[in-house]
Amino acid sequence: MRLFLSTLLLASRLVSAEDGSAAWLRYAPVTQAKNSRLLPAAIIALNSTKSSPVYTAGQELRDGIAGIFSKELNVSTQARRTSSAVIVGTLTAYTNDYGDLEDAEDLEEDGFFLSTEQDQVVIVGHNERGALYGAFEYLSRLAQGDLSPTSFISNPQAPIRWTNEWNNLDGSIERGYAGPSIFFRDGFVLENVTRAAEYARLLASIRINGIIINNVNANATLLTARNIEGLARLADAIRPYGIQLGISLNFASPRDLGGLSSFDPLDPKVDAWWMNITTQIYAKVPDMIGYLVKANSEGQPGPLTYNRTLADGANMFARAVRPYGGVVMFRAFVYDNHISPANWKADRANAQLEFFQHLDGKFDENVVVQIKYGPIDFQVREPASPLFGALHNTSTAIELQVTQEYLGHQCHLVYLAPLWKEILGSDLRADSRSSKVKDIVSGSRFKRPLGGYAGVVNVGTNSTWLGSHLAMSNLYAYGRLAWDASLESEAILQDWTRLTFGLDQEVLDTITDMSMKSWPAYENYSGNLGIQTLTDILYTHFGPNPASQDNNGWGQWTRADKASIGMDRTVKNGTGNAGHYPPEVAQIYENIETTPDNLLLWFHHVPYTQRLKSGKTVIQHFYDAHYEGADTAQAFVRQWESLKSKVDNERWNHIMFRQTFQAGHALVWRDSINQFYHNLSEIPDESKRVGNHPYRIEAEQMSLVGYKLYSVNPFHAASRHTAIVTNSNSSAGIATANITFVSGTYDVAVNYYDIIGGKARYQLEIDNRTIGKWTGNLEDKLGHAPSIYLDGHSATRITFKGVEVRHGETVRITGQPNGMEPAPIDYISFLPPGVVD
Ligand SMILES: *[C@@H]1O[C@H](CO)[C@@H](O)[C@H](O)[C@H]1NC(C)=O
Ligand SMILES: *[C@@H]1O[C@H](CO)[C@@H](O)[C@H](O)[C@H]1NC(C)=O
Ligand SMILES: *[C@@H]1O[C@H](CO)[C@@H](O)[C@H](O)[C@H]1NC(C)=O
Ligand SMILES: *[C@@H]1O[C@H](CO)[C@@H](O)[C@H](O)[C@H]1NC(C)=O
Ligand SMILES: *[C@@H]1O[C@H](CO)[C@@H](O)[C@H](O)[C@H]1NC(C)=O
Ligand SMILES: *[C@@H]1O[C@H](CO)[C@@H](O)[C@H](O)[C@H]1NC(C)=O
Ligand SMILES: *[C@@H]1O[C@H](CO)[C@@H](O)[C@H](O)[C@H]1NC(C)=O
Ligand SMILES: *[C@@H]1O[C@H](CO)[C@@H](O)[C@H](O)[C@H]1NC(C)=O
Ligand SMILES: *[C@@H]1O[C@H](CO)[C@@H](O)[C@H](O)[C@H]1NC(C)=O
Ligand SMILES: *[C@@H]1O[C@H](CO)[C@@H](O)[C@H](O)[C@H]1NC(C)=O
Ligand SMILES: *[C@@H]1O[C@H](CO)[C@@H](O)[C@H](O)[C@H]1NC(C)=O
Ligand SMILES: *[C@@H]1O[C@H](CO)[C@@H](O)[C@H](O)[C@H]1NC(C)=O
């Protein structure tokens, strides 16, 4: 029987200063001191070397037990017999001191054994980091109020469990939404590595064992002597957490940094240069985990420049790191970004197989091909990449994105574990046998020595790490799934929630409900039926802009025209991509009848009037899903509001602000996408919502002084395509209208644009009552990639609730421009109770 403290004892107490830096390692109190009799009386950590993860485990156990139970324990690094202690060490150290431990016989690399029997706790790792993982597991149970006796072994499913951090040397982060780098500034590794060590602690607790610290679009100056010293400093800081450092390389470094005339991987001088630099790095970072290489992709140099194969390129690095046990992660994200949309058979999704399939078996044993989960690029819905099923003699890893590049920049709640699980659970039926992606990347399906997970995280200096408290469930889930891909998304989420917010049942239920609905909701209001995230692919990847997908060389096409939509990836008439899957799966995708609705437009080009299995037409599904998804986002606000007394103010306010933003931006998405396809197809919405907004007063129809009309581009990012901006960048504008709605209580919402480069001020009045004032300063508050235009990225909403309004009164908005922000306004909505539009 499991004994949950929470049911016996006082509920968790809220701790102060909840700025997010402690993430899920808060060690908040869950019980009263009198129950600490269930706890061990001492900690014995069987290693006295301070850089040892076993030593770290001792310190962590002390801090954790002090935080959770207010019980101060001493940590000894000397083995001794005692009736009440937590003993942590490697299997070797433990058996030397305490004799054989039969229960731990099946431990594998990085695995741990945990046994708790009241106040006798044994934590044994196969290696040092395994022991630390076991300590974190024990603490996680305590922090969740679970003191039930247990005894089990946990081994990882995959050896490679790394993060990728797309940090540039200047301190910026590509696709990072939480402030500047914790590793670099001004071209060099930071002197202060405290934050890097804190990050390593978080990662160790979810059993991550490597960090690639710099951007895959790598800069050769990372390899200067000064920066190599810096790498050593970072590696030293993260080593006590059992985490190894790795780096991304620029393929042209021998030329750009080394001064050679070439970077041809088969040129002996080039080979020698890499050997030399690798030796230099290992002299300073003896446990460097290896290299990550993005070559011949999106303008990056690579072996194809010299007519060498990608394997020639990868193997050059593999030779250099092999003597040190290093691994080369070689990205499969190789494609031509100048393909012709006029060619019906052209398909970026085909690039991976075309570039890599013929190289199967040609990579050295310490090379791992790192494959994005889908064939295109971290979209809200993709099938698993066919490359997973095609490489049988090559080790592979799956690349996932914790940072929400295409999924709302951490300004939208999108819990990603369900998306990842869907990919990891996809059965590609290679050789007509069970071939789940998770079993392929673990190495088990094709009996590969290596394999695993690369998660693009992109934490920054923000105290919340990712810019949003709720987004941290994704980082937590990433680590948990990389260890054990069979875990349930909801169970992972609930562990995270208890650790992050305490044991209150209502908090748990509410965050669970919001998070589990969040990916379907985002899919509903961004891109449905496998059409991809319909964001602006040519700019910030944040707000809606479906037209940006098509008619360019990037190949993220939707092929939408007046009558039809979707990529024809069939073999019989399209790009042939469906045929890149093993036959059983290829057959499913080839046939429109067997293709699941949620991938219909990924594989097939169909009329808008095509019937789905649900019975709806494609276009009506678009309309409905966008309304339903946006409604779900409105509900998140009410759900979060209900937790006000149960979550500390600091985090409650932060999250409330973001959920409110999401609710407003979900409407921007909804209306943009619906307007776009309504305009294109001219097919009306059966429910008559699209294009029909009876509660709105369009800014362009108000009486304007100091304001002028502005045609928004893309047109669908404005209600009725038009907004207003001030005439000049210095003088205020005033927009006025008579209220013709019946007298009553309304929520008054103003849709406006908040661009970077200025902080316009606004005032909303009804007759001479001031309803609200605000400033266009979201760029300081949201951390997402900003926009300099009036578009789907900058469009946003502010709402004033419960406003008394009389028929015949005058509504007035005064906008004071600032910098280059001309106080832009789209419309005002007067929303009766229960209506959001
Ligand atoms: C103690 O830790 C050091 C540093 O990690 C390591 O080299 C050594 O082997 C460890 N000793 C034991 C007994 O585990
Ligand atoms: C912990 O260590 C301190 C200092 O060495 C000692 O005074 C104290 O008695 C120890 N406490 C326990 C519970 O062993
Ligand atoms: C590489 O880093 C150096 C030094 O910080 C910088 O001057 C250079 O602009 C960077 N190159 C690129 C392509 O970012
Ligand atoms: C190093 O960084 C940490 C965490 O950001 C900070 O608390 C500390 O003050 C810094 N130390 C120095 C010497 O600047
Ligand atoms: C690397 O090259 C430099 C310059 O040619 C040389 O001084 C150094 O000894 C070489 N280092 C190694 C490890 O080969
Ligand atoms: C690569 O091969 C192509 C065709 O075989 C040839 O035209 C081209 O000159 C070669 N390029 C180099 C750099 O060797
Ligand atoms: C792949 O491995 C299988 C089994 O080990 C072997 O029969 C086959 O020849 C290999 N193929 C290549 C291309 O190396
Ligand atoms: C974190 O980012 C938020 C905006 O998302 C900002 O308001 C806050 O000041 C930042 N905090 C730190 C410590 O950088
Ligand atoms: C077959 O492909 C052509 C383009 O080559 C396209 O116009 C046509 O609609 C496709 N037919 C079917 C049945 O999908
Ligand atoms: C998403 O849209 C579908 C189809 O309209 C609907 O069944 C589902 O409830 C929606 N889910 C969410 C979370 O919005
Ligand atoms: C409001 O109504 C009054 C009286 O009908 C009219 O004179 C005025 O022009 C209207 N104002 C606006 C902004 O439409
Ligand atoms: C405007 O405000 C004054 C007091 O400041 C008040 O007497 C008057 O009734 C208000 N007018 C309207 C139309 O609300």
UniProtKB/TrEMBL annotation:
EC number of this enzyme: 3.2.1.139
The Alpha glucuronidase N-terminal domain, residue ranges: 23-138
Keyword Secreted: yes
Active site positions, chain numbering: 298, 377, 405
CDD domains xref list: CBM6-CBM35-CBM36_like
Span of domain Glycosyl hydrolase family 67 C-terminal: 467-689
GO cellular component: extracellular region
Catalytic activity, as annotated: an alpha-D-glucuronoside + H2O = D-glucuronate + an alcohol
GO biological process: one example: xylan catabolic process
Pfam entry (one): Glyco_hydro_67C
Subcellular location per the Swiss-Prot or TrEMBL entry: Secreted
Record keywords: Carbohydrate metabolism, Glycosidase, Hydrolase, Polysaccharide degradation, Secreted, Signal, Xylan degradation
Signal peptide segment: 1-17
GO terms assigned for molecular function: alpha-glucuronidase activity
Residue ranges of every copy of the Glycosyl hydrolase family 67 catalytic domain listed in the record: 148-465
Record family assignment: Belongs to the glycosyl hydrolase 67 family.
Chain's role: Alpha-glucuronidase involved in the hydrolysis of xylan, a major structural heterogeneous polysaccharide found in plant biomass representing the second most abundant polysaccharide in the biosphere, after cellulose. Releases 4-O-methylglucuronic acid from xylan.
Name of the protein in question: Alpha-glucuronidase
